[in-house]
Amino acid sequence: MRRGMILARGAAIAAASLCLAAAEPADSPVNVPEPPGLYTGPQRGYTPPTLKGAQVVDGEQVAKLLEGPVKPVLIDVAMREKKPANFPEGRLWLPVHPSIPGAVWLPNAGAVPLAPEREALFYARVESLTGGDKAKPIVVFCHVECWGSWNAGKRLVEKGYTGVHWFPLGVEGWQDEHETKTITEDAEWKRGEVAER
Amino acid sequence: MRPTFAAFPLAVGLTLSAAALGAAPAAYAAGASDTDQERNARWQEIAKSIFGDRTISPTDTLVKLDAPKRAEDAALVPITLTMPDRDKIKAVSLIIDDNPAPYAAKFEFGPAADTNELKLRVRVNNYTDMHAVVETTDGKLYEAKQFVKASGGCSAPMGMSDEEAMKGMGDMRMKFADAQPGKPVEATLMIRHPNFSGMQMNQVTRDYTPARYIDKLTVSAGDQKIFTMTGDISIASNPVINFGFKPDGKPIQVAASDNQGGSWTKSFTAPSPTN
């Protein structure tokens, strides 16, 4: 039985690698390998169990960090809900974004590609939020099975941040056990985007 | 092939099953937590924008709202509305508080309706309260509430091309439960329609598929209305609606239209009681 499982895992790894080569979502949650750089496929999909250079955490560990002496910077990179272009006038449209209390919402900061100005602003925001301390604990997250937080974490690791924690279960994993708070988009992040338009 | 998103709530479920098996999470058991207060404030905001300043009283009897506590598929969450007091019910609205378009559906009942049980399937975007609000024939509003755990249902892609999803759009089928003399009949209406939410991204082109959803659905028994539904992007693709009606031997007429000008009608032969 164990042998069968190992074989099955091997097959899943092979299948997942093939998918990644074509930048398509993996079709199984089992052992999705880490891409060498940023992940360029759609944000929605199975993610790897690891992020080299970062610590993978669950909701309990995030809660512990928050209770600890050095408060982590919480960075939520979930995409904002896009109002359909042809959504009728007069119908109720009222998007809401519950998150981990205290999180800073930088929507879609895990996008690939990210415009150079946006990427620069992302680094600038993180630098400001960490007070320039590259060892400061940072928790990056979005939703469960979302590559956005993986990519955002990868960007920070590559930038030399050593306290990066990736929380792959994201908002859903958090709200199963803990309080959420409705947050709005980081003002500077939003301003930067408006300026681009 | 199952689209990836379908496993969203499932994956959380598996990962957190140990926690889920325990007592109810403290956050929701504690009563007036911050989260609860936020949810309540949001409901007040939504209720005001839909019902204005009208008072909405809680009810345990006029309407009961049943939904899975944790949905297996956030894009296909089954909802049952139970309204046994047929003569008192004029309309019912279903609101999914934390969906970006919270007002999922409104059903206005006609003389041929039996309101006892109404079922439909919806998309749920976040962990959310859901509200069913009935309007009684004396013009009062009553609400029932249920909390549902599901995520990503509005933006979940269908797992097939748009063309494939639109094949046979507007085709309808209806199934009837056995008719018994003098009793209402239960019917299931199935409409082939992608009900695109406008929030679904084509995984290959990365474009958003424009919203295309059934916004009006009228079902009648002969010339007597059973219900008219006003729909929104929160109704799941390929809508399935279970409803009850009072048969009088006349055919059941269905007229559906969508927000892009599509319209379809079909007539079904209702079963006659065998005795």
UniProtKB/TrEMBL annotation, chain A:
The record's SUPFAM superfamilies line, in alphabetical order, gives: Rhodanese/Cell cycle control phosphatase
- Disordered: region residues: 178-197
Secretion signal span: 1-21
Stretches assigned to the Rhodanese domain = 100-183
Tell me which domain of life the UniProt entry assigns to the organism this sequence originates from.
Answer: Bacteria
Q: Which UniProt keywords apply?
A: Signal
Q: Which Pfam families match?
A: Rhodanese (PF00581)
- What name does this protein carry? PQQ-dependent catabolism-associated CXXCW motif protein
TrEMBL record, chain B:
Write out the biased-composition intervals (Polar residues).
Answer: 256-275
- Looking at the record, the residues that make up the Sulphur oxidation protein SoxZ domain are 177-268
Give the signal peptide as a residue range, or say none if absent: 1-29
Q: Keywords, A to Z?
A: Signal
Matching Gene3D superfamilies: Immunoglobulins, SoxY domain
In Pfam terms, one family for this protein is SoxY
| Signal recorded as keyword | yes
Q: Where is this region: Disordered?
A: 254-275
Q: Which InterPro entries match?
A: Fuse-rel_SoxYZ, Ig-like_fold, Ig_E-set, SoxY, SoxY_sf, SoxZ_dom
List residues of the Ig-like SoxY domain: 48-154
What name is this protein filed under? Sulfur-oxidizing protein SoxY
